[in-house]
Amino acid sequence: MEMKIKVLAAALLLPLAALAAEAPDFKTIDKDKDGYLSRDEVKNGLPQVLTVFDKVDTNKDGKLNPAEYEMALRILSGQQS
């Protein structure tokens, strides 16, 4: 049973790692070119980031700066928790 869980977990994590590796760059998602990513921009550009949006929005301003976006990609790729 434990082996099945590990295999399932690995299968679920692989797509996230690949996604983060091929993620669009910050400037591509930043459609209004204000230097931040709103929730709408993230939803339209890379919706998986919404799953960690609140966690990586360290200054709690409701938007992501480039460093926060990179942190989201690291989390999604499993490099950081």
Keywords:
single chain; 81 residues; mainly alpha; Recoverin, domain 1; globular
Question: What's the layout of helices and strands?
Answer:
Layout: H1 2-21, H2 26-29, H3 39-45, H4 53-56, H5 66-76
Written description of the protein model:
This protein is 57% helix and 0% strand. The protein is globular and about 45 Å long. With 81 residues, it is mostly helical. The mean pLDDT is 85. It has a single domain (2-76), classed as Orthogonal Bundle (Recoverin, domain 1).
- Which percent range fits the helix content? 55-70%
Ends distance: 26 Å
Average predicted local confidence, pLDDT: 85
Shape: globular
CATH fourth-tier homologous superfamily: EF-hand
Number of strand elements: 0
The second-level CATH architecture is Orthogonal Bundle
Backbone structural class: mainly alpha
- From the 3D structure, determine the CATH topology: Recoverin, domain 1
Oligomer: single chain
Q: State the helix count.
A: 5
Instruction: Specify the CATH class.
Output: Mainly Alpha
Order of helices and strands: HHHHH
Largest sheet: none
Which segments are poorly predicted (pLDDT under 50) over 5 or more consecutive residues? Answer: none
